Amino acid sequence: MDKVCVKNIYMNYHSLKGFTKALMNINFAVEEGEFLSIVGPSGCGKSTLLNIIAGLLKPSFGEIYIDNESLTSFSSKMGYMFQRDQLFEWITVWDNIMLGIKIQHKKVSDYTENINKLLRDYGLWDFRFHYPKELSGGMRQKVALIRTLAVNPEVLLLDEPFSALDYQTRLNISDEIFKIIKKEGKTAIMVTHDISEAISMSNRVIVLSSRPAQIRKIFNIEFSVPHESPLKSREEPEFRIYFNNIWKELNS
């Protein structure tokens, strides 16, 4: 069953000098529970596309559907995880996680039990009253994810979520966050520059062209061993083949 449908999306930016074509005729669907990644050249419009899917930007033409309903603004069914953790340094981990619930004027007590479970399940319970500056970069990203999961979204949108981390932390935390997303049964759409990251975490990878971005190719990612850990997937023989094919597509 399709959870998200992207239909005939065009995006033009207008200025006094004319207009710039950013996206052209983007069409794809994401199945419920699927992890899909979007890669493409720098500046091609990947984040613009993600913002349109989120309902934060209105496209020049085309529509986004979630559960077969047309999206006209940001949907409570979606959660957005940004490039940086966006944690407020002057409040605790607990208060940072609660922030989204309070902003949406929801009743905190309705979500407390789920948040406590997330904190315990993913190793942050003992840090709930710490401040962000007391946490490692990887732990901060886990806090950001739990903050996103706190309001129980059905679809997660991830915009370069690990780009601010050093390489070793990036590998470890992407593995952890992948497992959290799968365990929580979420549908995920991720934008990344990292081909290896996209292959190791995704069921499919969409390759965009340079601006104006169009879909060049969609790769179905299948490993001979079940897709349970991004770190282990990088060791599979199919990994190098997918990497080379996506690299060629990006540079052709």
Automatic annotation (TrEMBL):
<feature type="domain" description="ABC transporter">
    <location>
        <begin position="4"/>
        <end position="235"/>
    </location>
</feature>
<dbReference type="InterPro" id="IPR017871">
    <property type="entry name" value="ABC_transporter-like_CS"/>
</dbReference>
<dbReference type="Pfam" id="PF00005">
    <property type="entry name" value="ABC_tran"/>
</dbReference>
<keyword id="KW-0813">Transport</keyword>
<dbReference type="InterPro" id="IPR050166">
    <property type="entry name" value="ABC_transporter_ATP-bind"/>
</dbReference>
<keyword id="KW-0067">ATP-binding</keyword>
<dbReference type="InterPro" id="IPR003439">
    <property type="entry name" value="ABC_transporter-like_ATP-bd"/>
</dbReference>
<dbReference type="InterPro" id="IPR027417">
    <property type="entry name" value="P-loop_NTPase"/>
</dbReference>
<keyword id="KW-0547">Nucleotide-binding</keyword>
<protein>
    <submittedName>
        <fullName>ABC transporter related protein</fullName>
    </submittedName>
</protein>
<dbReference type="GO" id="GO:0005524">
    <property type="term" value="F:ATP binding"/>
</dbReference>
<dbReference type="GO" id="GO:0016887">
    <property type="term" value="F:ATP hydrolysis activity"/>
</dbReference>
<dbReference type="InterPro" id="IPR003593">
    <property type="entry name" value="AAA+_ATPase"/>
</dbReference>
